[in-house]
Amino acid sequence: MWHNVLRIGAGGHVQCLIAARAGRAGWRPGSPNLFAVAVLCEDHSPSLLSALARMFAAAVILATAPLLVGIYAYLGYPVVLWMIAVTRGRRETSVTASDWPTVTVSVPVYNAASNIRSTLERLLELDYPRDRLQLLVISDGSTDGTDDIVRELADRGVELLRIPERKGKTMAENAALAAARGEIIVNVDATVQVPPGSLKPLIRAFEDSTVGVASSRDVSVGTRQHAGPAAESTYVGYEMWIRDLETRIGSIVGASGCFYAFRRSIRAKALRSDLSWDFASALVAREQGYRSVSVPAATCLVPRTADLRSEMKRKVRTMARGISTLLHYRRLMDPSRYGLFAFMLVSHKLLRWVPYLLVPPALLALAILATDNIAARILLGFVAAGVGFALIGIRRRESTGFKPVAIAAFALVTFCAGVNAWWAALRKAEMAMWEPTRRPEAQT
Predict the structure, then answer these.
(1) What does the pLDDT look like over 55-93, one tens digit per residue?
(2) Strand boundaries in 226-285, DSSP class E
């Protein structure tokens, strides 16, 4: 067996004597760790041993940092929210028919000929006074006949605002304000389904004069062809629960891009093309003294994407624009100025995205620790197995049900998207031009 002997030599130096078993020499897995091997020489000062200990501690911290941050962001933060929320009641508001404000439903689109007709047909069924509802489609330079389909519905009150040159979703949303006549503007994604009874609850939220933005409750659903990854449905449900807690204690920190409403003043100033209005709306509202809320009764059906590769592209675009928006409004993370909102913004957004930055160096640190630590080797083995399962799921292109392969594939896609999103955001890659997620018809 190996014997380690430390003794104090002349002048107070530490002598590290390491003797190997007879017939064996050199370092191998299972022998003294790399940091001990580094001091095989006869004479070292205590400061070197202290430095090596600090290096080991730093490697452990780096290897576990993404996990610890993730545990707080996804488990610790909700517990804190719940503890605050249970001490506060829910606000109840109601309005009569004569109180309904004028509303503009804005639908930004790009090459949506395959689904724009069905989307508009469903929006025309919304339960809302027709004389107070404007349905406006903003076509961002569509070239596939989308505009012609929209014009066919002009006699039913559907209006078209065409932007001749494609400039991106945010620029299209900026342009919509000039054509919108409503006191409240509702943004709807062209690929989702809004039930007829969802609009009134969303608008009712503005009866509270402190509310500047109201967001829907998204429901992730399968399609007629595919059930889609169930892990995504679970995550969406979790996210809606978090927003409900945030609403109870003050304000959500970001709206659902699929279906949300806001006061006209929120968009008085145009937003940069590489930023995201659904996230920025809640931030601008807070700067203007408003709060943003999630409305459970305002449901929105969001078809799941069966193709994981398409889902990854969507996640990269969404997260990159979200990170850029957060960095642009980073002043709102100052707790001395924005108090509880700053805490929620950091916890809900920043600390969910930071682990993607930490994972690559964490894996390197874990690999170093695994050379002489059984726990690190076991953990690294689990990581390798997870990646293997994930690659199998991605190669199949589709992933349904709560199976190990499905969960691993969804996790790996999310991780890769997060790393790519940070890379795109930090190098300020051009992501203004959007490629809307092609979602099949939802199963209702």
Answers:
(1) 767 777 777 888 899 999 999 999 999 999 888 766 655
(2) 259-263
In this structure, the answer to whether residues 265 and 241 fall within a common structural domain is: yes
Q: Are residues 27 and 132 in the same domain?
A: no
The SS3 call for residue 252 is: coil
Say if 51 falls within a structural domain: no
Give yes or no: residues 11 and 106 share one domain.
Answer: no
Predicted confidence band of residue 12 (pLDDT cuts 50, 70, 90)? very low
Indicate the pTM of the whole model: 0.80
Which pLDDT belongs to residue 137? 95
H or E stretch at 160 = strand 158-163
User: What's the rounded Cα separation, in Å, for the pair 154 and 144?
Assistant: 18
Residues near 409 by Cβ (< 8 Å), separated by ≥ 6? 229, 308, 389, 390, 391, 392, 393, 394, 399
DSSP 44: B
Q: Which domain holds residue 14?
A: 3-44
Query: Are 24 and 81 members of one domain?
Result: no
Give, to the nearest 10 degrees, the angle between helix 335-345 and helix 277-287. Answer: 150
